[in-house]
């Protein structure tokens, strides 16, 4: 068989081979139904469906990282309802009224059992602590430092200058106070931390004590100088005011 007879058969084989390759390439280049659906899903969002394939360009890697950061941020700031404490039943008006009456009773009867410590100091401040009965301390405002009017209402009565500076959490019925060292010697007891009606009595008591001290000084001078013909007679010292036990003012308190 000559070469001319064999040539058409070779051409037919090459043609069929080329057509097979073309069909495979067309199949590879033609999107499948799943790919078409994914493209339609992300149409207009500029997102790509990678199908777990590794990105091939830097831009694709940047895009994936940016999308990941957005997802993390969204997940991080999602507001979800937190499981709270079970709702406590609201107290009735009668229960609130009874509670208020009990509070008034405790604040009236228990201050006489308050215990005051002695002073202790460092280079800058002097300190003291005041121990309240626990049944009285339960009415204290929770989680806040007290102002003078507040601790006065609870029956804590003391001299001028004290400041409630710390909440002692293990035992909140113990109130911790401080003030400048030697405060009374420097400034005097000019504003006692007592109820207003008792402060007036304390001021009068202070004035009487001062007058008594002046008379004693004058009497001592007259004793040292016998010539007292022209000096006026001395008056007896005034009697101290009678205050309830837990209202008696101690000038070193």
From TrEMBL:
Gene Ontology terms: biological process: cell division
Pro residues compositional bias, start-end: 233-243
InterPro entries given in the database record: Cyclin-dep_kinase_reg-sub (IPR000789), Cyclin-dep_kinase_reg-sub_sf (IPR036858)
Key words of the record: Cell cycle, Cell division
Signal peptide region: none
Cell division keyword on record: yes
UniProt-recorded name of the protein: Cyclin-dependent kinases regulatory subunit
Organism: Parasitella parasitica
Gene name tied to this protein: PARPA_12644.1 scaffold 45263
